[in-house]
Amino acid sequence: MPTSPTATSHCEPAASKLDERSLALRRTIVRMMAAGKRGHLGSALSLVEILRVLYDDILRYDPTRPLWPSRDRCILSKGHGCLALYAILAEKGFFPASELWKFCHEDGILGGHPERGKVPGVEASTGSLGHGLAIGIGFALSARLARATHRIVVIMSDGESNEGSVWEAAMCAGKHGLSQLTVLIDYNKQQSYGSTFEVLDLEPFGEKWRAFGFSVEEVDGHSLSALRSVLTRVPLHPRQPSAIICHTVKGKGVPFAEGNPAWHHKNKVVDEDVQALLAALEPRDAQNLP
Amino acid sequence: MRKTCLDMVYELAKADDRIVFIGSDLGPGTLQQFKAEMPERFFMEGVSEATIVGMAAGLAMEGKIPYVNTIATFLTRRCFEQIVVDLCLHQANVRLIGNGGGLVYAPLGPTHLAIEDVAILRALPHMTIVAPADAKEMRRLMPATVNYPGPMYIRLAKGNDLIVTRDDRPFEIGKAVVMREGSDALLVTTGVTLQVALEAAEMLGGQGLTVGIVHLPTIKPLDTEAVLRMAAAVPVVVTVEEHSVIGGLGSAVAEVVAEASFRPARRFKRIGLPDTFPDRYGSQAGLMKQYAITSEQVASTITQLLNDATQGVHLLTDPLSR
Q: B201, CA 20 to 30 Å: which among A195, B54, B147, B263?
């Protein structure tokens, strides 16, 4: 299978160690999946550190006022990664944690893809790929009209970048020089069928974003310090939107799920699956890791 | 009608800073004055319908009221999923202004003929669809579009269309306009086919028949109360539209008339485009004639249905009532 030198030269996400909080968030994700008996596990596990750094350190928001006009807007354009978003939003108090255990239930607000208006903190209903960036452009243009300083973050996936609408929107964001807009790409290099290099190679990925008018940086998407460092520096250019390509591992934290397309989406999740996943995500002490 | 519509966008935007305009690579000079006076709210984007609809959704979610304009087929076919997800699912207050509804772009061929736009948009929750008959009705419509909730599709005709509507009352979105009452047949129209219906009613009037006309400048939500009230007074109902007979005005009216279970059942016919891609060029009027969307065809259809009714052809009477 062909691999891309650019994709791995900047960082080694596979080597990044997860701390207790990252493991705990992943256990929450697994328990939600157990409650719903389904979910896009691999796509959520690659996102955890990106969302964690955003919601811990970068974004301005008030969970008691989810529509506070001055909040930063974060769109999860790869809506199938919502298990990770739900875990963070609940932790931050946007909705009661009890909702997590009703994932995909008839009486729950948390579906297999996030919905605006139903889930406090969700800025756009996503699920069909390739929609979030254009909506984010609308948010950014509106902010510009209002002379507002809040930021717009759009989190996308690599498979999502197969969509023509992504590049149409990227060209538009570049044209408008939307420095308030930051695109974060969860580049775990696996899509549903298999490797992105095999299904539809995105490389040279960073150069593509640059060619569309973005300032680009590539980071280890599981390194808290690398993510903090780059996100505290955006906009990377005063008159350009920023694209941060986050090199990640699909299924990060669960060795048997890492890079394994079988864990992109699971339904009919059984207790044995859950036990194995939780065992892999036990606290470090219990795992006897260095 | 198009000029009136865009002029109104400019007028409305001057009075309401929530209004923004988004075009998709339109002709040079489009809304020049808007651009000169309100440049921050004027966006001329590329040939990228998916992006402009998503962008409009984002602007609307932030409280703006975007008016988006391009050719009707591109604005409905290309970005259909953006209309479904970004606009309808989010109930975004975006107005899609589709140039050349129906057969307007006849010389340009089937890629430019919006013959199923109403059908595909009518199936979408929260979508409103309007198709005024002339420039004066467009002028009355536009102020009502500003604060109407949810996404809206404004279907434009060719321009310089005959003025057939009256200025005696404001446009109410969702309300039918009863043009004339009649007891022999009812014609239901939308957009510029109101002209065809008026001519047909005149022709039939010469034969001693009184034909009612209900004009539906709003196709969705359909004014079912008005349609059913008018249909109750006649044995024959005929719809006339510049659109495929599948899924448009005729289908919408057929649905409510069928579900009303009139006794005796109403004779019903849809006049519109058959289930085919028009394969000739020429002019809008030429294609209308080719596909028999004409006053002559409407008049002869009504006459035929009335004859059938008189002669008891098919099931005129509800068998249960015998």
A: B263
Strand-strand pairing, A38-39 and A266-267: antiparallel
Interacting residues of B259 by C-beta distance below 8 A, sequence separation 6+: none
Judging contacts by C-beta atoms under 8 Å, the chain A residues touching residue B60 are 138
Q: Residue length, chain B?
A: 322
Averaged pLDDT of chain B: 95
Residues of chain B within CATH 3.40.50.970 domain(s) are 2-155
pTM, rounded to two decimals: 0.95
| Cis before B264? omega within 30 | yes
- List the domain boundaries for chain A: 5-287
Question: Among A72, A113, A118, A168, which would you mutate to test the B interface (most chain B Cβ atoms within 10 Å of its Cβ)?
Answer: A168
Q: Do A212 and A169 contact (CB within 8 A), yes or no?
A: no
Share of chain B above pLDDT 90, in %: 92
Tokens, residue B187 = 């014609």
* pLDDT for B203: 97
A4 touching B, CB under 8 A? no
Contacts of A143 in chain B (CB under 8 A): 62
Q: How many CB pairs (< 8 A) connect A and B?
A: 95
Nearest to B55 among A116, A117, A138 (CB): A138
ipTM: 0.94
Mean local confidence (pLDDT), B80-86 = 98
The helix, strand and coil proportions of chain B, stated in percent and rounded to the nearest 5, come to: 45, 20, 35
Backbone Cα Rg of chain A: 18
A82-95 mean pLDDT? 98
Asked if pLDDT for residue B81 goes beyond 50, the answer is yes
Instruction: Give the C-alpha separation, B153 to B218, whole Å.
Output: 10
> Mean of the pLDDT values across residues B208-237?
98
Residues of B in contact with A118 (CB under 8 A): none
The CATH H-level superfamily of B2-155 is Thiamin diphosphate (ThDP)-binding fold, Pyr/PP domains (3.40.50.970)
Nearest in space to B65 (alpha carbons), one of A142, A270, A3: A142
Question: What is the model's pLDDT at position A14?
Answer: 80
Is a pLDDT exceeding 70 seen at residue A239? yes
Q: Among A117, A142, A169, select the one facing B54 at the smallest CB separation.
A: A169
